[in-house]
Amino acid sequence: MKETKRLSLGFYFYPGKRGFHVVVRLKDAPGALYSVLGLLHDHVDIAGSTSYTLGDGTAIWSGFGTSLKEGETGEKLEKLVERSPFVLECEVKGSDRGLLIGSFHSGLDIAPDRPGVVFPIAGVARIYDRMVQTFGSGGRTMLYEEGSELGRSTGRYLNSRLGKGDLEWKVKALLGIYRAYGWGSASLEVEKPDALYRVTIRDDFECLESGKYRDGCDYLRGHLASTISTLSGKEFEGEETRCRLRGDPLCEFVLSRRVT
Q1: How far apart are CA 151 and CA 41, in angstroms?
Q2: How far is CA 53 from the centre of its chain?
Q3: Is 140 exposed, middle or buried (0-12, 13-18, 19+ CB in 10 A)?
Q4: In the beta sheet, which residues pair with residue 48?
Q5: Which pLDDT score, from 0 to 100, does residue 165 have?
Q6: Handedness of CA 230, 231, 235, 237 (dihedral sign)
Q7: 251 C-beta neighbours (distance < 10 Å), count
Q8: What is the per-residue pLDDT across 54-89, written as a single tens digit (0 to 9) for each?
Q9: Is the pLDDT at 211 greater than 80, yes or no?
Q10: Residues 236-247 pLDDT 10s
Q11: Which domain-ending residue is among 106, 136, 170?
């Protein structure tokens, strides 16, 4: 299946149509979601949805879509969904002149106990550019150090979740998370186990928007080196040998264990 970007479920616009946001708390049991979708099948054309367990025997399903019937209302849909024996609560909100903004969720968790926020890449690129424009090489150092600080936190979190395991496996997990979060689709080449790694990223978020003052991905370089150092308990250094900001087709980082 072809790789694609995940659409954020917080915002939809259906000009000239009646849209609905349906949120259901249901029993976390086989057939529960099928039951809800079966009831909505002839009433709402679902454009996007998400579901997740709450860890207490219940789960949430949240869906956005447009009405398939004239005169459809949120109240009617709530009563319809509540016919399911799996449904515990249901809340439906209609669009305002075609606009639907998901008000049920306030923020997001990017992993268990890891709250996150969303920024557009163009905005992040401008912030990074302004730092280098204002502070010169000091701005690049600040970006590297900020990436390093988050990397230490990321490494501690992954160690607490993944437990024991070889470093290569944990680095692959880190790069998988990069891809899932939109940081870039990365591949790993192990040149020397526990000592030398080469990471290539073909769509590094740090340089998807052209930088007027930057010529490298300092934030991600710091994050990679610091995360791997924390995962391994050894000190690693990071060097970016290729970068799209310098005209290369992709970004490449060499992570080497520091010799003391």
Answers
A1: 45
A2: 18
A3: buried
A4: 64
A5: 85
A6: negative
A7: 26
A8: 999 999 999 999 999 999 999 999 999 999 999 999
A9: no
A10: 999 999 999 999
A11: 106
> Is the pLDDT confidence value at 171 over 80?
yes
Q: Which domain holds residue 43?
A: 11-106
Query: CB neighbours of 149 closer than 8 A, spacing ≥ 6?
Result: 226
Domain C-terminal end among 106, 134, 152: 106
Whether 101 and 150 map to the same domain: the answer is no
| Sequence-ordered alpha helix ranges (H) in the chain | 32-40, 74-81, 121-135, 137-162, 167-181, 218-232
Residues 135 and 236 in one domain: yes
Q: Give the mean pLDDT of 34-39.
A: 97
d(CA 80, CA 197): 55
Average pLDDT over residues 164-181: 93
Nearest to 181 by CA among 241, 121, 105: 121
Q: Which residues of 11-44 are buried (b: 16+ CB within 10 A; e: fewer)?
A: ebebeeebbbbbbbebbbeeebbebbbebbeebb
Q: Please identify which residue in the block is written with the tokens 């990471």.
A: 199
At 236, which CATH number?
3.30.1380.20
